[in-house]
Queue: 2 jobs
Job 1
Amino acid sequence: MRFHLLAPSKKVWFSATLLILVLMAFTGTRFAGLFPSFGHHPDYVEVDYGYFIDSSNSHILKYVRESAIFRHIDNPNDIPWELGKKSYWVKLDVTNLESQHRHLSLYFDTPMIDRLNIYHFNGNGVEVNHWVLGDSVERGYKIGDMPPAVSFMLDGFENATVYMQVFSAGYPAMPIWLMDRHEYHSLTQLLHAVWGGFVAVMLLVATYTFAVYVSLKERVYLVYGCYVLTSFILLGAVHGFGIYIFPEPVQIFFSNNTISLTFGLFLLALLYAHLYLRVHQMNTMLRQVVIYSLMVLSGLMMITLVVPEHVGAIFLLTTQPLFYSLIAVLVWKRWKVAQKWSWMFSFSWLPLVIAGIFPPLLLTGHLEYTLLSRYAFLIGTVTSVLLMALALAERFRQQRETIVYELTHDNLSSTPNANVLSVVMDSLIRSNKPFSFCCFQIDRFRAWHLTCHWKKNSTLSDRSASAWTALSTVTV
């Protein structure tokens, strides 16, 4: 068969999935204690936090410094981030308690923040630095900004004040970590390793899947390849590493339309389930429900391109449980028809369903913002993509076995047919082995099969085959 080497292999995908899961477990164990918690700061550095909410987006830095009333908090996680067009001002009073100078870094997990202005003042109230970050059209992220952070130095016993203005049309949550320079470098190396591993796995799976589609011409592989690429683009926008791959205007477009990309991901996932479970071959109400759902998801994907991001987020939070419920119904309804590979399909969705809980909980503030919760969806996506590839390989194997069986066995009696006879006789002739050949015909055998229960047909076929096998053995 042409491109036979590209045929999906269950053993290959199982080995690859197991290897990547082992590497992920090793990485998690190795670097489990690397990430500091919120409110963490280096030893011999004192930090006081405060915040002020500008609901009108009209206050300037001078007013904020002189007149704004900052509410003191012990932990930056206590800032009440909410959806909506508001500006959040965060104030950090940082004091070096040592006589030696310190190199510090403020790390922000902010690749989706529209605008982040950072002002650094020394102990005399003089502005030392001013940084501008964010994915707005006016100023997108550069490669040097990833992961987003700013660095500054404090002399011995020096006091400094940092003001941060945070604005985003979507969810403006912005975790803040104050680290020593070497801690930040270690974190940077790990995040780049995670990003690089994710990019490598997703691109390899997508390339292989499209090659299989070229070989087999089955639409399910094309849809699955598009799903993998969409997941790759979406997570590149959410975590910011897409700037290493796409031009800056393209990355800004993706970053500003993550809600629309998510609906596109839902659309492709539903279409993948539709084809994988062969719902498109049914003329039932379930097929109509899937078709109408695909239309709705297409409409939501287009609508969220133009509506404000916080409005699109409400649509997304409402749609997600309905989407997972529909996938569950598809599996339930098609379990008996595709039971040989349905369990693999169901198992491949488990990591995605579990990891999919984290983004809405983070978005609504019901889950603490940590690097583990932040990257849970990325980890779940990689695991699910590999398991889906494994499910496709199992589906292909079962289909190939079915096709071979249908080509070599009679559809009524389930006994070997003329194709098997031809192959066996050719083999015996080539090996110069003597053999006897007996041919007989049962009158009205097909008509009798059509009028009897399939169990009786199967029993008759088995007994007939056994009797003629015994008779031929005795005759020989």
Note: The two ends are 39 Å apart (CA to CA).
Job 2
Amino acid sequence: MKIFDKASRPGFTRGVQATKISKKLGMLAAPLLLAATAAHAQSVSIPQVHSTVTGGSASTTLTGLPTGTNGDATIDLSLYGDFGYGTEMLTVLLDGVSVGVAAPTGLDCVSGLTQILIVDQATLAPLIADGQLEITFQPTSNVDNFCGSYNGSPSNVSFVVSGTITYDGVTGTAAEEQIASFMENRARALVQNQPDVARFVDGRAGGRLNADVTQGAGSIDFASAGRGPVWATLTGSATKFEEGNDQSYFLGAAGTHLSFGENTIVGAMLQLDLAEQDFANGDKAEGRGWLVGPYFATQISEHPLFLDGRLLYGKTDNEFTPDGDATDSFDGERWLATLNLQGRVEMEHFTMFPIISASHVRDTQDAYTDSDSVDIDSQDIEQTEVALGVDFEKPMLSHDLVLVGGLSGIWSDTDGDAASSSVIGNYNGWRGRIDAGLNYSNGAGLIAGMNVFVDGLGEDDLESYGLSLALDYQF
């Protein structure tokens, strides 16, 4: 075994290297994992790779990375292989750029060797701008394939390596992406929690209490009753997303309207909402806001066809807290437009209710400078949903009980600018929903109902199911 000579080590073109060697029982191969490690820091696991060819390289590509940083990166590697001589080493390349050399000299086929490389911010920033990073380990030609199998690798390997890369200063772009995700989820919750104004003209007006339980989501809904002219609603929901983020949402609304004839109303409403989202990496976003604007509902001619809509404008007051760092505040504004058309078709044994609904939300985040003097750019998201469906009801023999159900297809499209375009729109396209339940009426204005549903059919990343209970009473 030769004495290691620093002068014989190939120089690296970019980055600074530090070395530590230790003996451990073994190293674990980790899947790609994004997690917070310090204020504004993100750590990404490098999956285990190996080579069974003498002098042969190995590489892996990391995706979905934060695309900006104002600090250096640390690459922490665990190695196993033919590193018995000072000239046996690995050159580490990021997107083809050499950032250092791993040279755990003097130890052949020994597990638990570690090596640390430091990559300066100027080198790292352009490489991660696309959110991807190819990491290549290129050995010198004398790293031979005579080591045995290690940690699930084949036998006769020349080296096995895994580790992590940590950004010491993830900045504005990462914050913008988190905020964009928060805005997208808040927009969807805003539409889902809108008060029903068609009930003032279609004969279904009445107080209601509605509780939903879904896979990772729950909601509670109370509404005052009567045909007006003053009404109020309060709704709330809690949702758990597949990526590990949690959101809670509450919306209160109050309005008043004038009647024009027996089947048309025009009014104005005020809405106040609160949204909170906890991210899997420890970040947190919160927003409070208001919306105000006109609404209408009408029966079209003498036909059992009902149309309602609203156009609301409002402002938001928001906060974003990176894990372990100070809370920053920023403002925003929103527009919401909805239009719903539903009919009633009497069949021999049941009644059908064809429904078409459309909604559009535009949410804008104002630019701001965070507590670390990092500029966060402004951004917009726009979310459009169109739902086509048909509900039905069939009276049972007692006529006190009514079997109800429905089938709908929902088309969704979310667009954004700046950083938002890289993280939103995961649920774009079509998905299906099925409902089935039973309603009870006492004939004196009281209606109670139970409904089961499955949502997200045909969409791999969005699926929920649950049970809803409803209580209606016309005062």
Note: The helical segments are 121-127, 172-192.
